[in-house]
Design goal:
The structure is a homodimer.
Chain A lengths: L1 H11 L11 H15 L11 E3 L5 E9 L5 E2 L2 E2 H14 L4 E12 L4 H18 L3 E9 L7 E11 L15 E4 L5 H11 L15 H10 L5 E3 L5 H13 L2 E5 L7 H10 L13 E4 L4 H9 L8 E7 L6 E4 L5 E3 L13
Amino acid sequence: MNMADTRASKRTGAIDMTHGGGGRAMAELIRDLFHRHLGNPILAQGNDAALIEVPPGRLVMATDGHVISPLFFPGGDIGSLSVHGTLNDVAMAGARPLYLTAGFILEEGFPLADLERIVISMAHAAREAGVPVITGDTKVVEKGKGDGVFITTTGLGVVPEGVRVCADRAKAGQAILLSGPIGDHGVAIMSKRENLEFETEILSDSAALHGLVAEMIGAVPQIAVLRDPTRGGLAATLNEIARSGNVGMMLDEAAIPLRPDVAAACEMLGLDPLYVANEGKLVCLCEAADADKLIALMRANPLGKDAARIGTVTDDNANLVQMKTGFGGTRVVDWLAGEQLPRIC
Amino acid sequence: MNMADTRASKRTGAIDMTHGGGGRAMAELIRDLFHRHLGNPILAQGNDAALIEVPPGRLVMATDGHVISPLFFPGGDIGSLSVHGTLNDVAMAGARPLYLTAGFILEEGFPLADLERIVISMAHAAREAGVPVITGDTKVVEKGKGDGVFITTTGLGVVPEGVRVCADRAKAGQAILLSGPIGDHGVAIMSKRENLEFETEILSDSAALHGLVAEMIGAVPQIAVLRDPTRGGLAATLNEIARSGNVGMMLDEAAIPLRPDVAAACEMLGLDPLYVANEGKLVCLCEAADADKLIALMRANPLGKDAARIGTVTDDNANLVQMKTGFGGTRVVDWLAGEQLPRIC
């Protein structure tokens, strides 16, 4: 009788409440899906906590919930995104990511085939990044109380000796670097939602940046600030840094990389690309003298090939982020108050 | 105009989509609610990742999503539970918890006052446990795509030198100890859901067990297995351990602590207390020679005052968990296949 329940859920091919009940159906889901695809010796310990060895040094922890809609989008899905997003948060502290954990909240009725596709994508992203998912958790909520799948990942990383990357180290005179064109992720999602078609499909830039960060830190350990401009886009990220460091910023609009197709899509969608989320870009603040060296190094990496110096940190107790526009004027890049793009990550 | 949006959401007193947008409304929510109540020097770093110092040694990580319904229940709420649940997973690896992270998934329209109550409860639980919440994340989903609030917490802990607590160390002849009566948490939740009234209200046992674990490990570092019988109850936990260690178990029904009111409620609700979730109990497997010492020590701690030796590990390749019943017979305590209590944690 007990086994029949499990077989029934396999027949329907969808998540049911038993998958979150702590019994056999949950154990089978964990074994046949999560362990099968994400498998590694630490995950295989099979306890509710994972035992790990960590090199000496300062550590960082970062956690990120992923509720993106749609779950599958051009250039990625919630599985790969949930790896990239958290690895990037760890990397932006100047750290080398070591381990990931993953908590799944599944909605009753969610197709097992879609879940498997997501877990495979997650496994692929983790393998490519060289960072294993070492423990996890699965919960199930009733149909209409969730939205397919939410994934919260937490990353642990180690900060190299001598590195102190922190937003409060922003100082007047520093150069502001950006690793590549803005807006790709948000526009990819919105295009999919609105069923827009372009000549060439716009792909999310979702990518793990810790390799690029390691190269940058290796060459210039004194980098002051790193931040990935996700929700709220470049504008929100720069305003946050300005406030943390009690500085202002002057950007050069012409220097900010932006793909023509993304610019066109933003116009069509009524979006300002400065506020559109990215998932594979970073902002770096460094001493002006280090800027050229870093730009050259970033451009040699595929994830930074369009890197550019986009502005300078200024002395400004009002913490304004300003931008020289193409028309020769100056505008304030305000901090977005309302919602621009919901559920973008 | 920008500020007006934020003021509007304050006026409605509820979560709106702007609280997840990465802009000013989200920053204000984080500052006025999360940082205000959970505040500590590491959280105050204000980066997307928290920089921490960790003593040398082996570490453990554990992650747990919390989707309990109702959010407020006799003896706790999702805030305190999300602290206790994850701290306990860390403690069951024999580790001393050091840090917590928290990812919130909020539903549009959720009352800010309820969220504040939850965050205050979380802060209280974290303070009481001596483990700070050092970084977090907030996402918002549309009304009808979530259920008030889900909280995924991740814990990091350090394992004392010489300790190796792991389910695969279960061995025939070991004693099986239980820290107190079973079923309180599940029955408290179900009573609330079904609007049952009892003479005295049954409270969840939700509690952080790492203090008790530290005392136990301090006295008997060679403890083999620790596990908290949450989802699936004592039955699921013992079956999992039996399988991990390739052993069987023989329990003594009369020795398993169970409150009379919980027993009565279980009968009324049609539940078997062996399968009902606990959130403040632990199972311990130890050498038979250490059992009395541990029981005495546990009983001296309020969280283990009803501790009992409930059975013995047996040699059994079929990994059966059996129980001597009150009638002099023996029954198999099977692994629950279907769902008993959905969204119990």
